[in-house]
Every structure is written in C-alpha cells, then in structure tokens.
Amino acid sequence: MKHHHEVIVVGAGISGIGAVIRLQRLGITDVLVLEKGDALGGTWRDNTYPGCACDVPSALYSYSFAPNGHWSRLFAGQREIRDYIERTAAAHAVHDRVLFGTELLRARWDEAEHRWALETSAGALTADCLITAAGPWNQPLIPDIPGLDGFTGEVFHSSRWNHDYDLTGKRVAVVGTGASAVQFVPEIAPHVRQLHLYQRTAQWVLPKPDTTLPAPVRSVLGSVPGALKALRRIEYGIMEALGVGFRNPWILRVVQQIGRIQLRAQVRDPQLREALTPDYTLGCKRLLMSNTYYPALTRPEVEVHAHAVRAVRGNVVIGADGQEREVDAIIFGTGFHILDMPIASRVFDGHGRSLGDHWKGSPQAYLGTTIAGFPNAFVLLGPALGTGHTSAFMILEAQLDYLAAAISAARAAGWTRVETRPEVQAAFNAEVQQALATTVYNAGGCRSYFLDVNGRNSFNWPWSTGRMRERLRNFDDAAYLTSAGMSS
C-alpha cells in the first residue's frame, strides 16, 4: 500500500464519491478514500429500515453531472438511491480509490512537513490534503435510558435495522418520532401485535406529493434533451420558494395549516389529535412528509405515548408518566450525532488539540468548509450549511466547486500550506448567527438537532441556496494564510 497521497478522503458516501469525481476532473488522481464499511453509499448503505426513502424530489437528489432520468418515483426509495450512487461511482472508477474496511483513528497536521499524518486501522498514511466526508448522519444517537442494558428483548437503531429479527406478532416500543420513524412506523404497524410509540415532541407532518413515474414519463426524462434539466429547475424553484418561508416564519405558519388539515382529516380521535399537534412553527424541526403516518397511529394495535421513556426494567418500558408496558423489542428512531460528530475527536491541529477541543460543543468553519487551525483540510456538509428545504447534493456540489478552486489556486501558486484566517472565520460565523436569529430554525419555538449543546445553532445556513452557491463559487485567497515550501 502506498503511504503518501496528495489527497485522502474520509468516507465513501455521496460526499466522498463526489469529492473523488471532482478531483479527477481537476486531473488529481493521487486520491485515497478511507471507508470503514465494506461498501459505498454512506447513509444510503446503512439505512435499510422498512419504508426508507428520500424526502427531497429524486431529480434534485442526485449529482448534477450524473443526471438520472429513470427514477421510478417522484421521491425515490433507499434501494434505488443506493443503486444510483453505486452506478455513478462505478462509471467514474471511484471503487479503485477506496480502501474498504479501514477506519481513521487519528489525523494530525505536521507543521514541519506541511502534511497530514494519519493513523488508520490499516496502518500509517500521510497526505498533503485531508477531506473529511463522514457526514452528520453517520453515528446513531441512542439516549441514555436507565436499565436499557438489562433489557431482555431485541434492541436496535433504525439505521442499524435487524432484518433477521421478525417483528410479526411482537410487542414493540418505538422511541422517537423523527424522519425515520415517520417512514418505518406505517410499514411495521400492520404486522406487530402491539406498537407503543414514545413521542417526546409532536412533529408537523405534511402530505407527501409522491407518485410513481409512468414509463412514458421516464422515457421522456431519459431521452429528450433538456427534459430532466427542466424538471430539476422546477423542483429547485419549488424548494427555494419554500425556503423563503424558513427565513420568514409567518409564511410557514400559513403553510402548517396544510399539516393541521391533514391531521384533522386522518385522526378523528380528538385526544390523540391533540397529542399529535405541535406547539411550534413548522420548519423549526426537520420538515417531515408522509401520507401514511397519521393513519398508522390510529390503528387499534398502536398506542401513542406523548412523552419520553423514563426507564427500562427487564422487558418493561416505563414512560415519563409512570405507565409500564411489556415489550419484546425496542427500536430507536432517535437520529444521529449531528453536531457532536465523532470525527471531531480524531482530527488534531499541529499543537495536538482536537477539532472537538477547538469547537467546545459548537462546530464552526469558514463557509462551512475550512477551519482555522487546520491547514489543507476541508469538511464536506459541514457546520452552518444545512437547510430545511434543499438537497444535500446542492450543498455538496457548491462546496466541491470551492474545494476545487482552492486546490487549483494552491497548485498554481505553489502553496503547500493553506489555512483559514481566524478573524475571517469568526466574522463569517457572527454574520451567520445574526441572520439566523429571525429564521424559523431559531425563532420557531422548539429545540431541535439544529442547536448544539451550548444552545447555538451550528447547523443551518440562514440564506438562500443561490447565495450559498455564489459565496462558494470562487476561492477567496485573501481569507487564508498561505505559504510555500517547508516551514523551518
């Protein structure tokens, strides 16, 4: 195995794959991808729970350089998305650059050599440039519930679904009511004996405008020049129009009436309906869409507990209200370590301080992409870039343009060290925080995963996607400390 590479990428999900392809287009072929799993796909490899699908229109949820006119649905399912990712990677020979089954243990900037020194499960490596593409939807978050370790039944997280365990006829507790639970609960409810849904916070659920795409439509999208691009533009325009509401919460308070109407139409029981009615503005938490979630909760075998789980004792789940329910299995739909990403404890600056030490619970980067104190490093789908209305691919490709421009500038100038100026990063994040104050993310009246342990919104981009693309289009070298050659 070659030990030094021009670029090392951590993670082979959509971000890592996109990075490899973008670098290849620049003529950079000395790239190695470290992937701890045994296959490509990232979140779309890991999440195989029943009903797993995208909540962004398929035509928009794809690389712009690899259009797919053959989606079977307006909102594609997990298997179809993973197949698309694998086909795209194969078409660009990405597999040839991936070291599977290899985990990054530690990466430290070597100031003397102007390179990154990595410790991995496959041995030591070095790189001129480090790209972290592990993503925020990587490490499952399982709450610390007293007695859970002593539970006598089956326990798993939605992103680590145990397909070998047959839920038929079982008594099941589902903890969490986020995006994954909204999708898998309707799928498993008809098969279980009892389903106890523990809902700490009610969610706004809008109708999902999903439909199958007939063969003639797919034929047009796949063969007529410009048809797929036109569909992408239409979907982008609709999503951006929705994005205006995230910056003007009064608009979403109007839109949420659609969710209220759906709830009233699908849940007749006034007590259950009250329990399922949120007390915050739509968009304050992640936007959810489903046509089947509310009907599933009205089934006779489903009981909604509008509170958290207090403890587990043997095979008994104890709710915050003190009620006890015997169950055979517990499924967590409790999301991920979004802002306390595990990789932050594995990447170190030249003085031995980790990324986590720098952040102190509040991730920050310049343009969500580069970090003061960490030269020659890029983070994809980083802090302050998340939105509630657009595709992760749109964000990623804006970052890849910036990354490509930065590396091209460094190559042309002969720089061996490129680091964000701390004052520039601080000014950018102050600007972000000021703009976030009036968005629905901060002013919507809820606490979401957008907020870090310090109560700061470290996740969201407060402006339009168009503004993001504009800000990331060109590399602004004045924002960086640069040098050529080895340091003394």
Short description:
This protein is 31% helix and 18% strand. It has 488 residues and is α/β, with parallel strands linked by helices.
Helices and strands, with pairings:
Elements: E1 4-10, H1 14-25, E2 31-35, H2 43-46, H3 78-91, E3 98-100, E4 104-110, E5 115-120, E6 123-132, E7 154-157, E8 171-175, H4 179-188, E9 194-198, E10 205-206, H5 215-223, H6 227-247, H7 249-266, H8 270-275, E11 288-289, H9 293-297, E12 302-305, E13 309-313, E14 316-319, E15 324-326, E16 329-332, E17 347-348, H10 355-359, E18 377-379, H11 392-413, E19 417-420, H12 422-436, H13 440-443, H14 465-471, E20 480-483
Parallel strand pairs: 1-2, 1-6, 2-3, 4-17, 6-18, 7-16, 8-9, 8-16, 9-12, 10-11
Antiparallel strand pairs: 4-5, 5-6, 13-14, 14-15, 19-20
Please provide a written account of the structure:
- This protein has 488 residues and is α/β, with parallel strands linked by helices.
- The protein folds into 2 domains: 4-139 and 337-483, FAD/NAD(P)-binding domain (3-Layer(bba) Sandwich), CATH 3.50.50.60; 148-332, FAD/NAD(P)-binding domain (3-Layer(bba) Sandwich), CATH 3.50.50.
- It contains 14 helices and 20 strands.
- It has helices spanning 14-25, 43-46, 78-91, 179-188, 215-223, 227-247, 249-266, 270-275, 293-297, 355-359, 392-413, 422-436, 440-443, 465-471; strands at residues 4-10, 31-35, 98-100, 104-110, 115-120, 123-132, 154-157, 171-175, 194-198, 205-206, 288-289, 302-305, 309-313, 316-319, 324-326, 329-332, 347-348, 377-379, 417-420, 480-483.
- Strands 1, 2, 3, 4, 5, 6, 17 and 18 form an 8-stranded mixed beta sheet that branches. A 5-stranded parallel beta sheet has the order 7-16-8-9-12, with no helix packed on it.
- Helix 1 (14-25) runs parallel beside helix 11, helix 6 (227-247) crosses helix 7 and helix 11 (392-413) runs parallel beside helix 14.
- The mean pLDDT is 95.
